[in-house]
Write a structure and sequence with these properties.
Elements lengths: L7 H6 L4 H4 L8 H12 L5 H5 L5 H5 L6 H12 L6 H10 L15 E3 L19 E3 L16 H23 L3 E4 L2 H14 L6 E4 H11 L9 E5 L12 H11 L1 E3 L14 H5 L3 H18 L3 E4 L2 H13 L3 E4 H8 L2
Parallel strand pairs: 1-2, 1-3, 3-4, 5-6, 5-7, 7-8
């Protein structure tokens, strides 16, 4: 496919069709999966293009790293099969466009990239982030969210400019070569998506959880174990970078938080449901949110831990109503250092 690091023959020779067979939102048998996959491979309309909830998971399920999700989204856009209503898509594209308000800033390591989530700047404080510089704003927005709207064209247009802004306004003059990505979205954009799309990234990205795990080692003598049971809400974008999941377990172990065994976690994690509502799939959103939260309650957790702010905005109030405290991973780490 144009501009995507994708090998058609790998999909043609695939015997498992894991990208479709493991999907938690589309009920399909093997023979039908083979049929629908052939349609997609040949660039034709498929029921999958209409039913896909854009959860990213098939990127992880593919045993060959062949980007089946990007293939689906690319075809959705080419055929005008947009998951969300066109007015919502147009509104979001206009609202999230770069504003041209970025200014030169000398930064020093560690440089924490908050993307467009300015409201989280208050989380960067204390021993975990001592001496850190923070960058944020619409002019460095990673733009990965357009995968949920089948608008890869917006990603191709905007991501190179965002990368250039990070380099030109922050890193070049500061002689800094790496950033800490607070969100899976940014890290997934700069390490997985950019490579798949042939976009050059001249700086090194470090996932927040890798950074936190190392900082907790440095501060190990100051940690007061929390001794709590927690559930982790895995964000969609983490499906692009599943190798970072090891840091979730490391962090929980270091701060005395028990990640309980439950049905809808790890590879079986469910979407928060927010994107489904944007797609106007409200019945499905209600169903998976109930499954997910019921699962947390049954496991007896005290905290629901998030990394994606959108997931927290979507599920935070609902888990709180069920007696579970919603919290970002960074803030939970801060609690262990009080």
């Amino acid at each position: 496919m144009e501009n995507i690091n994708y090998d058609l023959k790998i999909c043609e020779d695939c015997k498992t069709i894991d990208c479709l067979m493991k999907c938690q939102y589309i009920d399909i048998d093997y023979n039908e999966a083979v049929k629908q996959k052939k349609l997609i491979i040949n660039g034709k309309d498929s029921s999958i293009l209409h039913e896909c909830v854009t959860c990213y998971a098939c990127e992880q399920y593919c045993p060959n790293g062949n980007h089946p999700f990007y293939q689906i989204v690319e075809l959705q856009e080419k055929k005008g099969i947009l998951p969300a209503p066109i007015p919502i898509t147009k509104q979001q594209i206009a609202m999230m466009k770069p504003k041209g308000r970025i200014e030169n800033k000398i930064v020093k390591e560690p440089v924490i990239n908050l993307c467009t989530f300015k409201m989280l700047a208050g989380s960067i404080y204390g021993k975990l982030y001592e001496g850190a510089s923070v960058i944020m704003g619409s002019d460095i927005f990673c733009n990965i969210m357009w995968l949920h709207f089948a608008k890869i064209s917006v990603i191709r247009e905007r991501v190179p400019k965002m990368i250039d802004n990070i380099m030109s306004y922050y890193l070049n003059e500061s002689n800094v070569s790496e950033i800490i990505c607070y969100h899976d979205e940014c890290y997934g954009t700069y390490t997985q998506l950019a490579e798949a799309f042939g976009i050059n990234v001249p700086f090194k990205s470090i996932h927040l959880f890798e950074y936190l795990s190392k900082k907790l080692d440095e501060l190990s003598d100051q940690i007061k174990p929390l001794n709590v049971k927690v559930a982790y809400q895995r964000p969609c974008s983490n499906r692009l970078i599943s190798e970072t999941q090891k840091y979730v377990d490391e962090i929980f172990e270091k701060i005395g938080a028990q990640r309980v065994d439950r049905v809808y976690d790890r590879d079986n994690a469910l979407c928060c449901g927010g994107v489904l509502r944007a797609h106007q799939k409200n019945i499905l959103a209600d169903e998976i949110q109930k499954k997910n939260i019921d699962d947390m309650v049954k496991a007896g957790v005290a905290y629901c831990v998030f990394n994606c702010p959108f997931c927290m905005f979507t599920l935070g109030e609902q888990v709180a109503q069920r007696g579970i405290f919603p919290i970002l991973m960074s803030d939970l780490c801060q609690e262990s250092l009080k």
